[in-house]
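Much of our argument rests on the idea that a fold can be written as discrete symbols. In the encoding step, the backbone of a single protein was reduced to a row of integers, each denoting a local shape. We regard such an encoding as a compact summary of how the chain folds. The record that follows shows the chain in one-letter code together with its fold in token form:
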Amino acid sequence: MGDVSIKMYDKFGCVLRIESTCNDIGTFRVKRKVEHKDGSTTEQKAPLKKSIYSLYQLFTIMKAVNYRYLEFISGFDDHSSGNGNLTKATEAVKEKGRSYRGLNFFSEKDLKALINILLRPTEKKSLLRD
């Protein structure tokens, strides 16, 4: 987003590191005292000043950004275990000298057999009609 960025590092597959950088802190607007040309001061939203006194406000903003980003990526689903289970269900299996073919979820015959196994008779009838 312009001069502000979020970076994510995967340290050796063990630690996830989130880092925010900002090259122009004036992009952030905060409530502060603003001095006008006539000498009067008012408290209003204005760009963040580049000074040592703005570090705490910048730290607070960037920390909130990192937490929002972590919350966002924590909602991602990991489908790797599901892919493994799907492969396991669709592969052929050899057991005690006998081979069994895997399920084909696109075959109507296999799908009906799976429904017969998994669902009770009352639920099965309503699902097969749809």
